[in-house]
Amino acid sequence: MLTRPRSSIAGSLSKKIGFESNEQDAIYDIYRKPIMLNEVIVKRNQEVNPEETVFHISHIDQTYSFRAESKSERNRWMDLTEKASTTYIETERESRQKAHRARSFRTGGIGKLKVTMIEGVDLIASDPNGLSDPYCEVSMGSQEHRTKVVPQTLNPKWNSQMTFTVKSLEQDVLCITVFDRDLFSPNDFLGRTELSLAKLSPKGRGPWQERLLLHEVETGEVVVKIELHLEAT
């Protein structure tokens, strides 16, 4: 704002500039200190004569008056100035939010996910006696936690609590894998499941309880309690 065409290109400095002007090769000079769009308010005074072509813009403690070529051009200047101001403010807000998320990602995430592995239900039998010694490995990215082992059962009660750092609601996925602990041979796989944080976030902070079907096995479920705590942006 607050520019005027150079006389060598656009003729006289008094030449009026409007939306219908076709000065494609014009070069403009700033003749006053620029006004930042996030600091202006277009004054729409209902008492102003509707036939008047002057409009006013408030900037901090000053008011600037501008005269347009016509009423329609005055209205267009007012509308476009308000639109540009709103767009500028929204763009700046989004930029700050992105910067905050980027800093949070580098310095420890955007929040915490509290998980309680409550129990397993109808797990498959892995031992010769028709039972298992189940435990869970729970991970999110490079973060890993493990529940205790509950011996000789297909319906273990773990009640194990763990906390994960949330780095991205769009990308973080909670992975749960159930194993049968064996002392003298590799642990047996009892199923796995996943929970995307993108599906959790619309539900709010929680806590809420999820019953998740285990995949790659014939039977089995796990019951978990989830609580999501995000930092304010």
From TrEMBL:
InterPro entries: C2_dom (IPR000008), C2_domain_sf (IPR035892), Endocytic_GEF_Adapter (IPR051480), PH-like_dom_sf (IPR011993), PH_domain (IPR001849). Residues 1-86 form the PH domain. GO terms for cellular component: cytoplasm. Keywords: Cytoplasm. The keyword rRNA-binding does not apply. It is found in: Cytoplasm. SUPFAM superfamilies: C2 domain (Calcium/lipid-binding domain, CaLB), PH domain-like. GO terms for biological process: positive regulation of Rho protein signal transduction. The keyword Mitochondrion does not apply. Its main location: cytoplasm. Residues 91-213 form the C2 domain. This is C2 domain-containing protein. It comes from Pocillopora damicornis (Cauliflower coral). The lineage of its organism: Eukaryota, Metazoa, Cnidaria, Anthozoa, Hexacorallia.
